[in-house]
Structure formats: structure tokens, C-alpha cells
Amino acid sequence: MKQFLFILGKNYTLSLCEISHLLQFNPYKGKIIDYSKQIGIIEFEEIINPDSLLKLQHRLGGIQKICEIIADYPKEIFIEGFPLQKLPKKFKKARTSIENNIIPKILPQIFLNIQNKKIMFAISVYPYLFSKPEVSVGHLIQFLNQFIKNHLKKDSNSVKYFKYPDKLLKSKDLNPIWPHHVLVYSLLEFPNAEIILGFTKDRCYIAKTIAVDNPNVRKLIDEHRPETQFETSIPPKLAKILINLLNLPKNGILLDPFCGTGTILMMAALQGINFFGTEINNERIEATKNNLKWLTKVFEFVIPNLEQIVFKLDARNLDSYFEENSIDGIATEPYLGPPLKSYLLESEYKKLIEEEIQPLYFKSLQSMKKVIKKNGKIAIISPVYKEIDNKKVDFDLKSLAEELGLKVIKLLPSSRFGIKKEKIYDKNSLIILKDQYVMRKINLFKKIE
User: Fold this and answer.
1) Which of 104, 133, 218, 298 has the CB geometry, 3.0–4.6 Å to 127, for a possible disulfide?
2) Which domain holds residue 159?
3) Contact 85, 132 (CB under 8 A)
């Protein structure tokens, strides 16, 4: 079984959550066999071809890069060769081993048929386990750049490498190159390459990048669509993640009953997913339609019957339009409360929850359950409010869902992990930052009857 290295997003638990749900079903069935706060090591049960991995990267919201693993070694050899502190007596032996036993073995698998070719490469190191790194990244990159360049020059016409600024190389906190750089320097194109070194608790994985997130597409959608409401809009990355949590069947139908300005629907449209979008607010319905029309022009595709699939409807009365058991999955962010410009008192938050938020969620979930099919999932965001002393005010959406007969689905299923670290498994929900005063809680429910 082939192993791949996934570069995780800033919120690594959310990235692992998204992957773990995709790994439950074909064609991507598999397990996370190792991970850190920066990388996940994925082993698929079936052979995955390059085109499928490109499609997977396009589909994912929380993954920066997908890389093919070439080899892995005990991480101690790299720590001994490039320690953070004073050089140990064994550093020369460790570096000699890297020069003689590691790099010469992996380069022929990364650079194929390079005779008389011009080569550009870059080294990216992901050293963070769950706290500080254990290896001097700057020294390691400088060493590898020069050694690999000299080795490749034996066969190729010209060899260049990505040069990090000297100031950054000397610092202890050197970021790897971003997906944007991979695209700008054509590092996915033959014979170029980005070489990844990713560290976990025991291993150092060496890999070659084969697909990256395209930040230009996301920026275009996020910043240049005609209708934006940043205070209430969901980020495109998060929209993708919510959709992926549903594991929709082929030709399945997605519903967003609080579609806002249409971010979730836009991400669904780009993946060819059938969808409906509803809102109680007329202005937002028109904003969603304008954004979807703009999307079809920019990316040159067609959304049939737009007027019939995006329309005004109260999320508490979905069954007034949709037939029972007609929707395959629901991804949505309902009303999270009014935009806040200061912290509220705990009593004020509780009043908001009791009078507005909780009744809205209960009635909406009740309506969603009626229209969704058996075994269909609901990926729904709920608010968590912050007080000035950083205490959190929440409400028990889990109990509301269970009262309605919905099953709570674990967001990081332990069955998809081949190795156990930290206490991140089988969470009922995940909380992520929205702004200074409100956080988003991601919940996943399933209709079982």
C-alpha cells in the first residue's frame, strides 16, 4: 500500500478531521498511520493514481499539499546532524550517513531522466511535533541545498534551488515554502521538484510534492465575488470541509438552508455536486444567485435551473417545500447571533441563547431531520461566545439533536487512525476561531431512523 504525506492546515485537528472522514469510504479508504501538528501520513487501501490525488487536493479544504513518500528514517540521525543546540560529537558521523546512505538513494526516485535538463528544486522542512522543533531547520536546508545541487550537476545542464533569505535561515522559526511558491516556481513540473522533510514523534519522512492547494482560486472567490458579507460569510476552506464531512453519494443532493451569500453552494458547484440553497432573507437569496452567476462566468460552466434551486424558505419549515427523505446531506452555518463589537456579560449571552439561538436551532434541526434521507448527515456550525476573561458560553446542541433522534457522529473517528497520540480522537465537536467575540463549533449528526 502506497503512503502519502499530507501537509495540514493551521488547525491541524480540523485538517485531520476532514481527512479521517474521507478515509472511511472508497475510493480513498485508508488510515492515518502517523501525524504531527504539521503533517499526516496516509496509507490508502487501494492504489491511488495521480489524477485522483489531484482531484482530492481540489476537493479538500484543510490540506495545503499532497506529497508522495519516497522513504522514511529514524529522526534521530537528522537531530544529531543538525541539532538546535551545540554540535554533539556525533554530528559529523550523522551528516556523513545522510550524504552517503540517504540522499543518493532518494534522489533517483525524485529526479528521473534529468540528463541535460535544467532543474529547479526547493527544500521544505516541517519540524514541529506538537511544540518546538528538534532540528535546526536553517542549517539542514543549507546543507541539503548544496549537497543536492552538487549531486544533480553530474547529469543536468543547470541546477538552481529556492533560496530562503539569509535572515530567515539563521532564525529558529523558518516557514516552509507556501503552495503559492510551488506554483510560481513551477515545482510540480518535470524535471523540477519540491522535496519535503516531515518530522513526527519517531520518524523523518522524505517526500516529493505532487499536488498543492491553489490559493489564487480561493482568493479570487473570497475577495472578488460580487456579493460579500464578511461578518456572516463562511470561509471557502471551511465550506469545503463541511461538505467533505457529509460523504455524499455519487449524484447526491446537498442542501444549505442558511445559504447566506452562497459560499457552501459555490464550493459544491465547483465540485459538480447537486445542491439546493435556501434563505429567509430576500437580499441574501439575490446575493447568492449573483455570486453563483459570477462563478459560472469566471470558471466557464453552467448551473442549470438556478432560479429553481436557490430560493426563499424558512429553515424551520423545510418540509413545506422538500419531500421527506429527499436530501442526501446538509451543510450549513445558521444565524450565530448579532455581530458583536464588544464582549457581553454571561447573563446577556445566556439570554441571547435562550431567546433566539436555541429555539432557532431546535426548530431547524427538527425540519432538517424530516427532509434528509436515512443515514444522511448534517454538518452544522453553532456559536460559542467568549467573555472578556476568555471564559466560554455555549449551549448543548448535542442534547437537542439527540432529543430529536439524531445520532452524534464523532469528528475524529479513532478507527481511521493507525497510531494513537494526544487525546484528539472521537470528539463530539470541534471549536475554531471566528472573530474576537464568537467561535464556531462544528457538529456532525446523522439520521438513523
Assistant:
1) 133
2) 3-213
3) no
